Amino acid sequence: MHQLPFFVMPGVALAHLREELEIVEGDQRARLMLYRYGQRCGKALVENFGLSCNDLQEVKSVLEPVWMEAGLSRLRVESMEDSEIILNLEESVEAKEGNTCDFARGYLSGIVSQLTGKRFEVDEVECASGGYISCVMQAYEVLDVLRPNRIQETESLRKYNLEGGYSYLIKEEIPDQAFDIFVDSVKHAVPCLCVTREYPEKVKDKHEVKTVPFLWLSMDQEKTYSRDPSNLALLYSDIKTFISENKGCMVLFSGLEYLVSQNGFAKVLKLIQHVNDKVAVTDSILILSISPMTMSEQDLKMLEKEMRAF
User: Fold this and answer.
1) Structural domain tally of the chain?
2) pLDDT tens digit string along 251-283?
3) Do residues 305 and 172 both lie within one domain?
């Protein structure tokens, strides 16, 4: 198997990256982006070594030597239960700069998640930048809202046979056609993700797609599947993760008008272009349902240039 080049970011480069992100995105958004980037780096490190573990005890035996490759701190496992790990980080390069260890906790999340094949998030309980002797991390297993539940494929013929590797634009006032295509793919065991403005529980009941992962475009952040519509970087990261881990999948995007109202068309178009690229190289399919009455003629033409008309 061909291995991609791998490098560890110098501490000073990480500090500069944080500063620039804080200027552009603000403190909270910068912390989240560093965490998400750390997750990707941690997963890539484990993939590069070709490692996997059957349980957390195996994780404990490989975590410390794997962590040494990062150069972010010295790590010690304090305790471990069925779905929780408490870790101690000493001499953290982020804490030395007076910052919380957002990249490091993301790195831990990515490493443990990749080793176990489950989703682990990490919180920093104590940080040396706040006057503590060392940094204490809590890793815990959570429900992976992006993991599709495999269902038995129906024996009926496919109603739609769209060519993979392309994105399709459906112009309709109500996304009936888009969901008809989507449900047809779900019934034939295609990994599917729905990004929508509608409340997911109602959509699941209406279209009988209870096993499908959803991302809800909403300011209500109490739900695990909620995504702040103004945080396009996080939304793209989630969609990219799903497509990368489920090649040949289908993503239904319903609610683009809402994203445009929150971010402006130019930023949303850039999001669609990035998703298009990911779809193309994974033989996946993107379905975008849009109400033409809500878009200017110029914006609609820009979307039409990026996608196939259905």
Assistant:
1) 2
2) 999 989 999 999 999 999 999 999 999 999 999
3) yes
- Name the token pair of 8: 């560890």
Torsion on CA atoms 43, 47, 50, 52, rounded to nearest 10: 30
23: Cβ contacts below 8 Å, ≥ 6 apart: none
Cα 87 to the center of its chain, rounded Å:
24
> Contact 307/169 with Cβ under 8 angstroms?
yes
Could you tell me if residue 1 is inside a domain? no
Burial (Cβ within 10 Å: 0-12, 13-18, ≥19) of residue 143: exposed
Same domain, 116 and 182: no
Residue 7 has pLDDT above 80, yes or no: no
User: Residues 285, 171: one domain?
Assistant: yes
Position 72 confidence tier, pLDDT thresholds 50, 70, 90: confident
The helix/strand/coil state of 1 is coil
- 17 and 127: one domain? yes
